[in-house]
Design a protein that fits this description.
The protein is elongated and about 105 Å long. The protein folds into 4 domains: 109 residues, 3-Layer(aba) Sandwich (Rossmann fold), CATH 3.40.50; 81 residues, Helix Hairpins; 196 residues, no CATH class; 186 residues, no CATH class. It is mostly helical. The strands form 2 sheets. It has a 4-stranded parallel sheet, sandwiched between helices. A two-stranded antiparallel sheet has the order 4-6. The longest helix has 41 residues. It is 68% helix and 4% strand. α4 runs antiparallel to α11, α19 runs antiparallel to α21 and α31 packs across α32.
């Protein structure tokens, strides 16, 4: 098991899960990775790990940065004082990786249970801890499963999870009574809470170790990170710089992805043509060309823009700037009643709402965590990006593309902030908890690290494209092709046979249109179309696409690709963008224009999150109340804002 610096006092869900795994599952070895440039704070976790009965390998990472700050470490002395193996590493340069693996294997094979270290606290605190420990030892089951001294100290620290554990013991009442007595006694003696006394004891012990094994060769002045921070997190310049960098990120993403997307689109058309020429006309050809290639292919064409977005975000994250972004936004987050730590899950929502919602586990306060979960779906995940790309590319100039995309993302942030303020004021009242965050030093991102982070996030999209989206597109193909031979208003086969080439083409298109309208998809789309008419896109095909988007947002594009390609296989050069641009209504006017396209993109941004996100909200809140509430309120917000944009735009003569 590998664990980074943190604390074993469980405040958030992820800390509870990690701690319970260590204590209950007893992993063979724990590899504890520390930031050597901030060693004293990082060792706070280590001294707790060493008393849990599991061997610990201490990895002093970023040793190069610590040395640049003037620190030198006596490795042998550290191993003696901490009674655990120590390895120096520079992960970004892959230095020490072999040594970590060798030391871990060595510890595992030796079977040696390193006793770690024993911190001796003030004698008064030690005496009270022993009193609680003696009662815990009466319960053989409890003391065998958990270290009794560890339980006693955690009870004095006020750990709620351990308190609940003690209550379940047959001696629970006696344990908790002694805990209360000890807390009162220590408070009277020291004028401070036991958890503060214990923390002082640990830091005192750590300070003593560092004074023995760490040397400072020179007095550090203001580092390069400090100088950069004086500009990037400046009270006046910080927010404008942050917004500018976000704008650059979207400009970069859109500009460099266009050529790659064109290549993929060309390849898709060639594969479709080949498949169409090899297979006879009929159900199988339609399934393969329009259902499989047309559906999934129209999603895969957006892989470049998604991977480039994740690449740019990984650069900012690995450089250390993302932590500054959270710091910049902290004061503002508190003004709307959110925890400063909420900014990280919201930022992760730009990649995917699923891991972003799960990242909210790090927020200690239950109300802050719940509000963060409820507003996270408004953060525009990578799955929505194909929809924006399709409609921006179809109805906006290349010069406007980056600005339009930025405005969509900015609107999502603004709506999430607004709803967070409303929820905190009326639904989940209370003060936001204070936020303390360490700002890491700036680092030059490594290409390997950035590519790994890009792939990890992009892979989620690819996996969806290969599973959920594939199944969704096939479902849409089925709905749009059956009944396979509906009752037509004309005998098209005879009319086409006797018509000229030009007239036959018109009849074929007319037949395809009538077949779509009489299909299951057409019936479903027409049922929901009136709901979207006031928003400017009351087209039944769009309605079907939005329904498919509840399965996964990527399916919106795949669905439209399937719907617009059925019955038009002869027009080999016709793309989905052209189909949207040329779509006309019953009056002969084009159904889509920039205003309608923007209204539609806003609706996609804000309406029901995908079914996987709804499931995660259920799991994280342990209730169906909140996911059902999310479905309802996000749909209402999406409809209202799209209505205001479209109707307001019409009044201003836009579109």
């Amino acid at each position: 098991m590998c664990i980074r610096d943190s604390s074993l006092t469980a405040h958030s869900i992820d800390e509870i899960v990690a701690r319970n795994f260590i204590i209950e599952e007893k992993p063979d070895v724990i590899v504890n990775i520390l930031d050597s440039s901030n060693l004293e704070r990082n060792l706070y976790l280590s001294v707790q790990l060493m008393k849990l009965g599991v061997p610990v390998v201490l990895v002093f990472n970023m040793i190069d940065m610590a040395e640049r700050q003037g620190f030198t470490f006596d490795k042998k002395r550290f191993q003696e004082l901490l009674n655990s193996p120590v390895v120096f590493s520079v992960a970004s340069q892959e230095k020490g990786m072999k040594e970590i693996l060798e030391e871990t294997v060595k510890v595992f094979k030796s079977g040696k249970n390193f006793p770690g270290i024993e911190i001796k606290y003030d004698k008064e605190l030690e005496r009270e801890a022993v009193k609680i420990e003696d009662i815990i030892k009466k319960d053989a089951t409890l003391s065998e499963k958990y270290p009794s001294r560890w339980l006693a100290l955690k009870l004095l620290e006020g750990d709620d999870v351990v308190k609940k554990l003690a209550k379940k013991s047959e001696y629970g009442e006696e344990i908790l009574q002694q805990k209360e007595k000890s807390e009162k006694y220590l408070n009277d003696i020291f004028g401070d809470t036991p958890d503060a006394i214990i923390a002082d004891g640990r830091y005192g012990f750590i300070s003593g170790i560092c004074s023995e094994a760490v040397r400072k060769t020179f007095e550090a002045r203001h580092s390069l990170s400090d100088k950069i921070d004086s500009v990037l997190i400046n009270r006046i310049l910080g927010l404008p710089i942050f917004l500018f960098l976000m704008w650059v990120l979207f400009k970069f993403t859109f500009a460099f992805s266009e050529p790659l997307m064109s290549l993929i689109e060309m390849g898709q058309e060639q594969v479709s043509d080949l498949a169409g020429s090899l297979l006879p006309s009929g159900l199988l050809q339609s399934l393969l060309v329009d259902g499989v290639i047309g559906g999934v292919g129209s999603v895969l064409v957006f892989v470049p823009i998604i991977f480039l977005l994740f690449f740019a975000m990984a650069v900012l994250e690995d450089s250390g700037y993302m932590a500054r972004a959270a710091f910049i936004m902290d004061k503002f987050m508190h003004k709307i009643g959110l925890h400063g730590r909420s900014f990280i899950p919201l930022l992760l929502g730009f990649g995917c709402n699923l891991p972003a919602i799960m990242a909210a586990r790090t927020i200690e306060d239950e109300r802050d965590r719940l509000v963060t979960i409820l507003v996270n779906p408004f953060m525009s995940c990578g799955a929505r990006l194909p929809v924006y790309t399709l409609f921006i590319g179809s109805f906006f100039t290349e010069e406007m593309a980056g600005n339009v995309l930025f405005s969509i993302y900015f609107l999502g942030v603004a709506v999430s902030i607004g709803m967070a303020a409303i929820f905190r004021r009326y639904l989940l009242k209370g003060e936001a908890a204070p936020f303390v965050m360490e700002l890491p030093p700036y680092r030059l991102p490594t290409l390997k690290g950035v590519l790994i982070h890009m792939w990890e996030r992009g892979y989620l999209y690819l996996r969806k494209a290969g599973t959920i989206i594939f199944a969704g597109c096939l479902l849409v193909w089925f709905l749009s092709n059956f009944p396979f031979n509906p009752c037509y208003s004309k005998n098209y086969d005879i009319l086409i046979k006797n018509a000229s080439a030009e007239e036959a083409k018109k009849l074929e298109n007319e037949k395809a249109k009538e077949k779509l309208e009489k299909s299951y998809a057409g019936i479903l789309g027409k049922t929901v179309a009136p709901v979207f008419k006031p928003l400017g896109f009351g087209d039944w095909k769009i309605g079907v696409g939005l329904i498919g988007g509840f399965v996964a947002k990527e399916i919106v594009v795949g669905t439209l690709g399937t719907l617009y390609s059925v019955g038009e296989a002869d027009e080999k050069s016709l793309s989905l963008r052209q189909a949207l641009q040329n779509e006309i209504d019953s009056t002969g006017k084009k159904k889509f224009n920039p205003l309608v396209a923007y209204s539609f993109m806003v609706f996609v941004l804000l309406y029901i999150p995908c079914v996987a996100t709804v499931a995660v909200i259920k799991r994280e809140t342990n209730s169906w109340k909140w996911p059902i509430f999310t479905i309802f309120y996000t749909s209402c917000i999406a409809w209202m804002i799209s209505f205001l944009i479209y109707q307001g735009g019409k009044m201003l003569g836009l579109g």
